[in-house]
Specification:
The protein has three helices and four strands, in the order αβββαβα. The chain is α/β, with parallel strands linked by helices.
Length: 105
């Protein structure tokens, strides 16, 4: 007789630890692409990424309200600055696109 201990099924904590991955809305992070070159409350689809859009700072605020209404707990902001340089100076500019968006949100 062969005995196979079920060490990974012994109790609920271990079973939960090794079970298949499950996702729920608390695991999601919504990416937002904020384009400093866009004005007003506009959004534009990103051709290479279906169902993803570039937002102006103003429209990103509205999008964040909708995301919050869906109970999605987090966003990640990707900024598209007007001027790019080899140092990425817009990333630490006090009035950069991401900094302005965060203050507005």
């Amino acid at each position: 007789m062969i005995i196979r201990p079920r060490r990974l099924r012994r109790n609920k904590k271990i079973r939960d630890l090794v079970r298949e991955t499950t996702l729920n809305k608390n695991d999601f992070i919504m990416p937002l692409f904020v384009d400093e070159n866009m004005e007003g409350k506009s959004k534009r689809e990103i051709p290479s990424m279906p169902n993803q859009y570039r937002f102006s700072v103003e429209s990103a605020i509205e999008e964040c309200k909708e995301i919050a209404d869906l109970s999605i707990p987090a966003i990640i902001l990707f900024g598209i600055p007007k001027n790019k340089d080899e140092y990425g100076s817009s990333a630490y500019n006090k009035n950069g696109v991401i900094q302005r968006t965060i203050r507005s949100i």
